[in-house]
Amino acid sequence: MQTNPFDLFETFFGGSMGGFSGMDQSTFRTSRQNTVLQGEDIRYDVVLGFTEAIFGTEKYIILSHLETCDTCGGSGSKAGSKMRICSTCGGRGQVMRTEQTPFGLFSQVSICPTCAGEGEVISEYCRKCSGEGRIRVRKEIKVKIPPGVSKGSTLRVRGEGDAGSKGGPPGDLFVCLDIEEPSDIKRDGINLYSTVSISYLEAILGTIKKVRTVDGTNDLRIPPGTQPGDVIALAKQGVPSLNKPTIRGDHLFTVKVAIPKRISGRERELLEELASLSNGGFVRTDAKPKPAQPKRVHLEKEVGASQEDTDKSKAAGDWLKKLTHFAGSIANGAAKWLKENL
Description:
15 strands; HSP_DnaJ_Cys-rich_dom_sf; 4-stranded mixed beta sheet; unfolded protein binding; HSP40/DNAj peptide-binding domain; DnaJ_C; heat shock protein binding; 5 helices; 3 domains; zinc-finger; alpha+beta
């Protein structure tokens, strides 16, 4: 005669399992509690453009996930059919394996592999989901990207993961962001960084350069006397703060001064003339000797010289005076650069 192992436990420990509180005979049948489990989460990767990450956008994604079967409501059984008792565990939801050991009888209880602890099995399966209780569906979802997100940020969309088994609640959708960054603009927090190149004359005299920003092309004012490595900021042209979009960073430009390696003879003469007019009277020695210049012959003017010659002499004096005044303001910087770079 076959002995039921559960009856042996009842014989030794009784219906109350030896008086332990909360461990009665139903303990070996309690897996059939119809507990529902939440569905699994889903990850989806999205690549954003640089300006999309800064100003925010909306993305439509095609998602494939599991949804509860609308025909059987997640039960997996055909409408109108009844559940039947599991023949493996006899409706207990658990199975027991008993072995004889040198130390006595050893029994191990585990969940029934046939009914997964439910104690009942489906007699007729739902045709739509084949008894799974869930079906795979392709769905278009709109995801709102807030301004100021960074590379590696993750957005959580609740309830868009896989549906749980037996009608359980769905998991969540996690959208992981990657950002395409341009080569000429770098980001650090809410600030942006770029480089602007100017000539040495523009550095001395100042200028206005057209620069690229996330808001389009803007004017960047270079003040006179700008030094290499100086940083000029365009205020509130950076990235909005993720939690406070009204707060925005700056776009910082590092100035790079281009010093020419070769200049024309005329340029050299002008620079040396400007240098000679500066304080200190610096004059650069030519690498190559200049060709001998013909000596000017000074002729005494005759009494009654023409008024035209007088006007020309006066104009030349005015021009030299203006040149001297202009050279005094920039010759110091030009002379210094000539010593170091030319």
